[in-house]
Write a structure and sequence with these properties.
binds iron/sulfur cluster, single chain, 12 helices, iron-sulfur, 3-stranded antiparallel beta sheet, 35% helix, TIM Barrel, 12 strands, 19% strand, alpha/beta
């Protein structure tokens, strides 16, 4: 019998993917780590696992249905454990009065996070500055979402997602806009409309604001936590993989993170750091130490090569590399007393796409 902890299992699944027999539920594309499905472990941990990328067919892990939403997870021929998948949300069967299916407005992420890209357009899409790992424009092109989610529709979906599916928190993201004031307005209108109808903690993801006073407006609209995603601390890597972010410069991120921590509190501000873009382990660990020292949570994820993106033929980092990075950064987080457990909403609370929280335990 293969002895493996949930931490190690989560890391292996994220790097190697899982083969499925027909059940490919999960979103194919969109912002963030798509092309996977969420699995729930009996200890309460959850993992978003690649199921659609090219390397998955070589994975030693496979899923075998034993009941509705329940599977045996095998490593080669050996049974490792049983896992569940979140049931298809009941709110997905509803439509707005104007006929838009709720699932085109927002999706369930993990077991209890309602997630949406409020503005599905990004000014960098189809330009040389686009983030090479991002799939924000693909779901729009394929008709699986709508370009702009109206605040009143988001509120309607959130209300039903709470009532029917016990959703607990919300992630609002957006493509880049030319004008940060407009971006903040879009996010705060969405947040305040949701807060009016549902008692949900709200996370927003946005670019590092130049006018940091705008963070106060988000807070007043009911936003609880903020993600400002640098993706990599290696500037040369960033110039190739996310040129639009490299152009903003590291100092702008630092200023935005520090201002956001003053307003939202330590541990309520986070950034995605993608491992596997060509950076060194050192850059991730030193970058995470800097983040933790100013109260920002380093949300480390292995690269998810999404079909249809320029990185679709890349491979995620090896599990051994991720184990070592997670272990070292978990020690740093303990030293700086930053923990995912205090986060009220968003990816840090969900933790399906990162094993960082599991290593803190
Ligand atoms: S960690 Fe974030 S992107 Fe991943 S499933 Fe959860 S809410 Fe979605």
């Amino acid at each position: 019998m293969r002895a493996i902890s949930i931490c190690e299992l989560k890391v292996e699944l994220q790097s190697l993917g899982v083969r499925t027999e027909g059940d490919k539920r999960g979103r194919k594309s969109g912002a963030g780590p798509a092309a996977g499905m969420v699995l729930l472990f009996d200890n309460g941990s959850q993992v978003n696992v690649p199921t659609m990328s090219w390397f998955v067919e070589d994975s030693p892990y496979s899923l075998h249905p034993i009941a509705e939403d329940r599977f045996i997870l095998k490593y080669k021929e050996e049974e490792i454990t049983t896992v569940a998948a979140p049931p298809i949300p009941r709110f997905y069967s509803l439509k707005t009065a104007s006929g838009i299916p709720y699932w085109k407005i927002a999706l369930l992420h993990g077991k209890d996070c309602l997630s949406t890209t409020v503005l599905q357009h990004c000014i960098h899409w189809n330009t040389k500055d686009v983030c090479k790992f991002c799939a924000i424009g693909l779901s729009l092109r394929e008709g699986r979402t709508i370009a702009r989610k109206r605040p009143e529709d988001l509120a309607e979906v959130a209300k039903h997602a709470v009532e029917l599916d016990d959703v607990k928190h919300v992630t609002l993201t957006t493509g880049s806009t030319r004008d940060e004031t407009r971006c903040v307005k879009i996010l705060k209108d969405a947040a305040s409309a949701i807060k009016e109808v549902a008692d949900l903690a709200i996370h927003v993801q946005l670019e590092p604001l130049e006018n940091t006073q705008l963070f106060h407006e988000l807070k007043s609209a009911g936003v609880d936590t903020v993600g400002i995603h640098i993706e990599s601390f290696d500037h040369d890597v960033l110039k190739v993989m996310a040129p639009c972010k490299a152009k903003l410069g590291f100092d702008r991120y630092i200023k935005a993170w520090e201002s956001a921590v003053e307003i939202f509190g330590a541990g309520e501000v986070s950034t995605f750091i993608i491992a596997g873009l060509g950076e060194s382990d050192r850059s991730i660990i030193e970058g995470s130490a800097k983040l933790a020292s100013i109260g920002v949570y380093p949300f480390i994820v292995p690269l998810r090569p999404i079909p249809g993106t320029p990185l679709e033929r890349f491979a995620p980092p090896e599990p051994a590399r991720m184990l070592s990075i997670y272990s070292e950064v978990a020690r740093l987080l303990r030293d700086y007393r930053i923990s995912w457990k205090t986060s009220r909403a968003g990816c840090v609370r969900c933790m399906a796409c990162s094993a960082m929280g599991d290593f803190e335990l």
